[in-house]
Amino acid sequence: MKNNANTNLILFHHHTPLTSKSASAAAAANHHRLLFIFFLSFFTFLFSLTLFSSSLHSAARTSHSPSSSSPSSPLSPPILAALLHYTSSPPPNTSMSFSELSAITTVVNSKGPTCNLLVFGLSHESLLWRSVNLKGRTVFVDENSYAVSKFEQNNPGVEAYDVVYSTRVSQAGKLLGYYKTRPECRPVQNLLFSDCKLGINDLPNFVYEIDWDVILIDGPRGYAGDSPGRMAPIFTSAVLAKSKDSGEKKEKKTTDVFVHEFGRRLERVYSEEFLCEENLVEVVGGLGHFVVAAEKGGKQGNGFCRNSTKLSEPFTLDIGGDAEVGVDDD
């Protein structure tokens, strides 16, 4: 056998224990390593959570497309403004009853998404009318220029116009006799060029060109002799409704006209004189609802109704008398 002449030498080294200083350094290193691992895990979790949330949000946006009618869709600004307005208002929240509000809302909704709504008078319900007719066109007319300006400022995109009324409640009786003798007060005409004292002729041109589907008369003031009264809005509404262009259609176009506070004598008498008693379809609380048909081909003469003998009787008010201010002037 061949002998191995090399000798293997095994050395044993004495291991010196770690000092307290080196132990602290090692512990610190381990602590930093643990912190690094924690933060790495934490941010990895956050990233995963964000990615997951983004995926859910993207899926939600896809499912809540404009064609979807999901109740979680964002509210439009007019609807949101109306909700805030009514929930923050102290009681009573409205000058109309629930049945009166429902009657108007039902008719506006029945006209479809392109309803043309004309409202005389700014009131607590104004934002409601705008919201109910959100996809249609709603125009407000009021006697108070400051109120109109503030309403426009608080509700961007709203259409509101101020008008100066030349009539007074105290003139109501004389004005009824006046219009019968004036050809400029005929039922079918363009009020933009009218000199009739009961007509409103200083609104923007488009007001006289639009075929209004619904007209609400809730202004101006009419509780005192020197108040403007609602004679002019009622007369103007009747002319706008009767002057609609029916074209070649066999069926006449109609306009739903609502008169609020119909229980007051002035509103009732003027409504029956110009909107006509035969056109009164319902009375809901203090709200009169008329459906007025257009006069095809234009109606000659000053007669608004088929039978107005009852309404032609002398008319006086308990307040303010029958002043003749400006009524007999040419």
Automatic annotation (TrEMBL):
Keywords carried by this UniProt record: Golgi apparatus, Membrane, Transmembrane, Transmembrane helix
Keyword Transmembrane: yes
Annotated transmembrane regions: 34-56
GO cellular component: Golgi membrane
One Pfam family of this chain: IRX15_IRX15L_GXM
Membrane topology: Single-pass membrane protein
Alphabetical GO biological process terms: xylan biosynthetic process
Subcellular location: Golgi apparatus membrane
InterPro entries from the UniProt entry: IRX15/GXM/AGM
NCBIfam families given in the database record: A_thal_3515
Matching PANTHER family: OS11G0490100 PROTEIN (PTHR31444)
Protein name as catalogued: Polysaccharide biosynthesis domain-containing protein
Lineage, opening ranks: Eukaryota, Viridiplantae, Streptophyta, Embryophyta, Tracheophyta
